[in-house]
Design goal:
It is found in: Membrane. It is built from 25 helices and four strands. Strands 1-2 form a two-stranded antiparallel sheet. A two-stranded parallel ribbon has the order 3-4.
């Protein structure tokens, strides 16, 4: 676990201030041997104060270093041709998607007189996230899931506070519900900025996670002590905005670590953990608000965020391969005194104009968004996402106003969503293991759209759930008081309420409430 600590924010800080003496990287350890391809480049561009000795078997040098006691012993490694051969045999078992990843992550370093590309030392380089042990990858997966859970729970944990906010600030339920809607809008807008930033090699994923998480945690305090409803709603938007990297980039961090054939299993674990946030939020927050006051669910969110921040500060490593290689190139330039050692991303960005860097980092996602397949998937996910969040306002209305559950008990029906989430995930895991993997092993390639077959089957359950909920929402005794045609009107109206009211809880709930009050 030392290497995990070394690559965290705290570990990098300790390594930097100690000049590599504590928590050293491989190239900072005494006795480390420079790869042969870097030796050749070093010999070709060695500065005057370096002594270069060449023999038929090895190339050795004695560079001027920041630490005078460090002495490099150089020996040749496996030839480039042999390395290419091993890589080519490895590629044969991969899909075209993975081939691109291998091209990025596993090419040997190419030597030239003017510049040398610093890449992985060999195909088993332990700094490559794809080569991490299974235990380490599962551990980091757990950290990313913790981060996502800590942010995702912030949406629904707010709902038990709504009655107290209505009383405290003397506002309507629609206004109070905006705290939920604005939070969701915030972490819908945030990825447009933070996700591209995490793809810039000089920044990476971990700094974006930690900086935004710190702001997310601190912004809970202005919400708790808000003097008016305007401050509360504004801060709810910004907490969602700064919490968004966990939701948008978490999948990218997982993809950095797992091969494409095993990636769905890791994403399923991450998705289920993330879904536990809004599902458990009303339960955790409901009992707190019931026994204390409306601020306590928000205090719980603050404590969860503080816990996640402290854990991740010490243990969350960088997973972006380009960032890892860029930092390696910087260390090697300092260690060897050779200014011609660069990572591939440094060379690429040095040849781009600032406008091109801006386009690639910030504008490319918008270009991809209008692709038909991506656009259709986003529209469908937006609809199902809106329906999902509709329950967080509809359940308290139904189980609180109609069935007279208290704040704590009104959150328990959400456990049904957790059960179906686990069942659906189990079905997908089985389908991927018994159907997708055999095809991949046989052909070496999977059409990405073929994974949507399960979604086609599951899509029918979304409108069915609305119809069932609308039909069964009132007690059986309501039939004695309401004509059948009025009672049957509830579920089509519930369905139509979603597209009619922009699919946001703040606008859907007044529609549902108006139906209920006309039938009372």
């Amino acid at each position: 676990m030392t290497d995990t600590l070394r690559n965290s924010i705290v570990g990098l800080f300790i390594n930097t201030i100690s000049d590599g003496r504590f928590l050293p990287f491989p190239e900072q350890r005494l006795g480390w041997q420079l790869p042969a391809n870097l030796q050749l480049a070093r010999a070709a561009s060695s500065p005057p104060d370096s002594k270069v000795h060449e023999t038929s078997e090895s190339v050795s040098f004695q560079p001027t270093l920041a630490r005078n006691d460090l002495e490099e012993t150089i020996s040749n490694r496996t030839s480039a041709n042999a390395f290419h051969s091993s890589i080519n045999s490895y590629r044969k078992s991969l899909s075209s998607i993975e081939k691109a990843q291998v091209d990025l992550n596993m090419k040997p370093v190419h030597e030239t007189v003017s510049e040398t590309i610093v890449n992985w030392y060999d195909e088993h380089d332990q700094e490559n996230p794809q080569n991490w042990s299974l235990g380490k990858r599962i551990f980091v997966l757990g950290l990313v899931s913790l981060l996502t859970f800590g942010v995702y729970i912030g949406s629904a944990i707010y709902t038990p506070s709504i009655p107290g906010i209505i009383e405290k600030f003397n506002v309507s339920r629609t206004i109070a519900t905006l705290g939920l809607s604005l939070y969701i809008i915030g972490y819908g807008v945030g990825p447009l900025i933070f996700s591209p930033l995490s793809e810039i090699p000089s920044i990476g994923r971990t700094p974006v996670y930690m900086a935004t998480l710190l702001i997310f945690v601190l912004l809970q305090l202005p919400i708790i002590y808000a003097p008016n409803i305007q401050t509360l709603l504004a801060m709810r938007f910004f907490t969602g905005f700064f919490g968004s990297p966990a939701l948008a980039t978490g999948g990218a961090s997982i993809q950095d670590m797992f091969p494409i054939i095993k990636l769905p299993y890791a994403l399923i674990v991450w998705s289920v953990t993330a879904s536990c946030g809004p599902i458990l939020g009303p339960i955790i927050g409901g009992f707190a608000a019931q026994n204390r006051n409306w601020t306590w669910p928000l205090w719980e969110l603050f404590y969860i965020g503080v816990f996640a921040f402290i854990v991740l500060l010490f243990w969350l490593p960088e997973t972006n391969a380009e960032t890892i290689l860029l930092k390696r190139a910087q260390r090697l330039r300092k260690l060897t005194g050779n200014p011609n050692l660069f990572s591939k991303s440094e060379i690429k960005q040095s040849k781009l104009k600032p406008s091109e860097v801006l386009f690639e980092s910030l504008l490319r996602p918008f270009q991809l968004m209008i692709e038909p397949a991506v656009l259709y998937a986003n529209v469908y996910l937006g609809l199902t996402y809106a329906i999902f969040y509709l329950w967080f306002e509809a359940f308290p209305l139904v189980y609180g106003d109609i069935y007279h559950f208290n704040l704590g008990l009104s959150g328990l029906p959400f456990t049904g969503l957790l059960v179906t989430c686990i069942l659906a995930s189990s079905v997908y895991v089985c389908w991927n293991y018994y159907h997708v993997e055999p095809i991949f092993r046989k052909t070496g390639y999977i059409v990405p759209e073929s994974r949507l077959a399960v979604a086609l089957v599951a899509s029918g359950f979304v409108p069915a759930s609305l119809l069932i909920f609308g039909k069964m929402v009132f007690p059986a005794g309501c039939a004695l008081d309401c004509p059948n045609y009025r009672r049957s009107f509830v579920y089509p109206r519930l369905v139509l309420a979603i597209p009619e009211r922009s699919r946001l809880p703040a606008f859907v709930i007044p529609n549902i409430r108006s139906i209920y009050t006309r039938w009372k």
